[in-house]
Amino acid sequence: MATSFKQIEENLKTEAGKLLDAGKVSMVLAYGRGYDEKHPLPYVARSLADVDGMVFNEYCTANLARYLVRYPRGTKIGIAAKAADSRAVIQLIQEDKVKRDDLVILGIPVYGMKNAKTDEAIDAKTTCGLYNPVIYDVLLGEEVHGQPVLSPYEVLEKVEAMGQDERFAFWKKELDRCIRCYACRKACPMCYCDPCFIDQNKPKWGEKSPETGGNLMYHLTRFHHLAGRCIDCGECSRACPVDIPLYLFHKKVAKECEEMFGQAAGMSIDEKPALINFRVEDSDKILE
Amino acid sequence: MSRIGVFVCHCGLNIAKTVRVSELAQFAATLPDVVVAKDYKFMCSTPGQEMIANDIKEHRLDRVIVTACSPLMHEQTFRKVLSASGLNQYLLTIVNIREQVSWVTHDIDEGTAKSKALLNGAVNRARLLAPLTSRVIDVNPDVMVVGGGIAGIQAALELANTGRKVYLVEKNSTIGGHMAQFDKTFPTLDCSACILTPKMDSVMQNKNITLMTSCEVSEVKGYVGNFDITVKQKARYVDHDKCNACLACTEKCPGKGVSEWDEGLVKRKAIYIPFPQAVPQKPIIDRDACTYFIKGKCRLCEKVCEQKAIDFEQQDTFSTMKVGAVIVATGYDLMDTKPLVQYGYGKYPGVYNALEVERLFNSAGPTGGKVTMRDGKEPQAIAILHCIGSRDKNNYEHCSRVCCMYSLKFAHLFKEKTSADVYQFYIDMRAAGKGYEEFYNRIIEEDVKFIRGKGARVAESADEPGRLIVEAEDTITGKFIKLPVDMVVLSPAMKPRADSKDLARLFNLSTDKYGFFMERHPKLAPLSTMSEGIFIAGVCQSPKDIPDTVAQANGAAAEALTIVVKDKMELEATTAMVNPASCCGCQNCVRVCPYGAPFFKEDKGVSEINEALCKGCGLCASVCPSSAIIARHFTNEQVLAEMEGLMEF
Amino acid sequence: MSFEPKILGIACNWCTYTGADLAGTTRLQYPQNLRVVRVMCSSRINPSFIFKAFQLGADGVLVGGCHPGDCHYNTGNLYARRRLAVTKKILEFSGMEPGRFRVEWISASEGNKFAEVVREFTEEIRNLGPQTKFKIS
């Protein structure tokens, strides 16, 4: 039986309060009230008094790992992390953007999260399919067991089955709708480049206005930059104002990377990101 | 706005035959920023170079494009023209329309069209080139020679005689290589030992040479002028500093090992020197044959050694040498002919390979120089089979070059030492070399029988037990021959040392498909490699005889000297740098660089690159997600602009 | 007029570019549709170069590097192998015909292989017809 959202919220407040009170962290990244229940906001508690403002409900989908890289190196941070969020934390540790010792991970085992826009349940279709955090210091509820374990890649079947031309038409239609608001990269915990390659003028990798060529360049290159790093939280797609199913592409790349390199992103702090690593015995078959 | 000059070379008819060169020049003149475009017969000639130099001045050019042969051929030539004309040498672009256009097509329309596209790409790229400053580095004056055969010995002596300090690294316990195994050398029939051992001794005596036997290179760091090479001194179990070479130990030793020097024809002691003239004259212990190492007791050698030089506890040790240049001269192995079952090597005792026969002739060899076979008998008929595994698509395609000649030498020595009939089974006789054809004619006079046809099979005689039958087709008469003989000599293909690929990896050398080291250019840079400061000599490059090997060794010594003779040298300026404003601090560059050039500055949260360590591969630039790394001379903008130009036409 | 594909080649200086030179020196004939950009190492190849090449109208892209283990920079092509494999998967999933992007290890001594690969690849691209999906007209 999964711990209730209310109970998790209580546990979150208690544990965050303890950490802040003891001075173990200088802030706790969590969720706070938005303009309604469906729109909780990322929230930073810096003192015991701030803890009361925390909330947790089924709409707290944002991946708070996104905010870890904002603070100076060495800042002691507590972070509320659901399953995919915890993988993002691991990935950031792998990439040395944060240090494990500087973090207190408040793991949230949870089932039944919802997409605020559609009220659909968020399951393996749009996220990595895990319910329990991969890494944590404190667990804010009981581990979720007994829920169906779904492959995060099943959802790809339809697009994989398409012919090349049909698939190109599918992606062209989707990517042509991109308005280049960059909400996807803002929501992404792994997109911490400043500036992003697409904002460069030397070289100019692609048009900056929303049009086919520039959109394609931005998205394809971003898929590559996230290859072996995307932890499949699905936030890019939920953040997208025009609902481009970016998660499908990311999932496909993640699936290929898993098959080719035998490792999934954000599962172990001892690994190296797959694309800045190699094995001598990698097969040439991966190029076929 | 750039001022670009385009210079189209005809290369005689090499280019002009399949590219309309004047049309190409006219086309160039229409491209933006091109202020002068000319074509000329030989751009690399003095008048060609002068033309470029004059135009740089007259037209105030700030970019030069030479449309000619491969940049690997003449980039340096034309860079010098720019430098001499006051233009930064990195503002040169070479368009390769010879090796990659005119020589690979017969169609002048296609050739011209492709040349235009390449030139258009080059103009795009040239516009974005930046002047670069070469790094000047100190050069270490010492040289390392790897391999102590005749090539390594010769190179080491030449260098040492110029006053350079030389480290001569040899993996065996003596220098001398294969040449030390020979009795005579063709075509003069000089005694091999008489010409080699004085050189071996000179190595020992030369104060400038540090002789490192039983040693192997284990790590190579650094770059031309400043290599740090770690050498593994394999445990000898004899302290050579204490040993006085009395060799009492080798007399008492009960252990038996296989004599490598005698090609396994006889046994040697477990503590041994490979042969009486070995350099150094100090023994080593063969762990695999030593009674103490096998059974845990014996130590007879220790008891007889007055110098207390035996050290069973000795371990491999590692030391690092600093040198400015390296000569690799690691020689060859003979192909293992056992897998060629049709020749019966290893199955019939009467079948020998060439090196074994060299030992039979040698007075220091297992038979004291008498030609007696494994059964103790003197052969009455001998067949020498050429091209075993050489000139053979299934094994080694190359001609091993020395087999015809040493087979003739064998025939002569057989005639001299036995009363046997000698037969040569050959595909073609190749006797190109000074005095070689003459030697061939002399051997014909000596009543040696020549059968033009490759030995196809060696079988046991059904009629005469113990004798062998050589089967072949005589391609002159067209007849199939079955020749009964007592002894068969195989002339196997020469191949690179078994570990040549490992060595290639250490020194960053390219190899051909068999593992022979690739030269930088087959004609114009036969001793240089793609790795600056590393030179090759002898058979490790390709099969060759002793005169050619020695000539190469001298050449390689001279090449190495051109580097270490200078105190300072310029390095390519094409290194990478970080634009800190764009660096996102992901440290991908730090993680991937094979040379440890990038490092992370914690305080600023950005990476920087130590240019002294950077070799300019550009890996960091491609793993940099925010395009913060500038791979000089191959920047993102330059590559993209070139691509755009190439795809325009 | 028959379709003449435009093929972009990106070749590493030490192996494939030198192998291409060797193909020339030995006068091997191959189609003239390939235009080669020289880079120092196959690891220099940014995935965006490949996407860009197709946007610029390349009908095919051929990348050439040293054989794994023979990289002039030790490990460059081992990184490149992974990065280019992912590039290939991304192209395929975006709807690009898989045959239009190819990576080959061609050493400095393999002039024959270079010519053979160019012949084969040009033929393949010719059969695929013009690349219109990414091309920006």
Jot down its keywords.
heterotrimer, A: alpha/beta, 5-stranded mixed sheet, 8 helices, 30% helix, 8% strand, C: 4-stranded parallel sheet
Q: How would you describe what is shown here?
A:
The complex is a heterotrimer of chains A (288), B (649) and C (137). Chain A has helices spanning 5-21, 83-94, 157-161, 164-176, 183-187, 212-225, 235-239, 246-261, and strands spanning 27-32, 41-45, 77-81, 103-107, 138-139. The radius of gyration of chain A is 19 Å and the shape is globular. Chain A is of the alpha/beta class. Chain A folds into two domains: 5-139, no CATH class; 154-287, no CATH class. In chain A, 30% of the residues lie in helices and 8% in strands. Chain B has 649 residues and is of the alpha/beta class. Chain B has five domains: 4-134, Rossmann fold (3-Layer(aba) Sandwich); 143-234 and 316-331 and 497-564, FAD/NAD(P)-binding domain (3-Layer(bba) Sandwich), CATH 3.50.50.60; 248-304, no CATH class; 333-495, FAD/NAD(P)-binding domain, CATH 3.50.50.60; 576-631, Alpha-Beta Plaits, CATH 3.30.70.20. In chain B, the strands form twelve sheets. Chain B has a five-stranded parallel sheet, with helices on one face. A five-stranded parallel sheet of chain B has the order 20-27-21-22-23. In chain B, strands 2-1-3-4 form a four-stranded parallel sheet, sandwiched between helices. In chain B, α1 packs parallel to α4. The mean pLDDT of chain B is 95. By secondary structure, chain C is an alpha/beta fold. Chain C has a single domain (7-128), classed as Rossmann fold (3-Layer(aba) Sandwich), CATH 3.40.50.960. Chain C contains four helices and four strands. Chain C has a four-stranded parallel sheet with strand order 2-1-3-4, sandwiched between helices. In chain C, α1 crosses α4 (111-128). The two termini of chain C are 20 Å apart. The model of chain C has no long low-confidence stretch (mean pLDDT 96). Chains B and C meet through α4, α13, α16 and α17 of B and α1, β2, α2 and α3 of C.
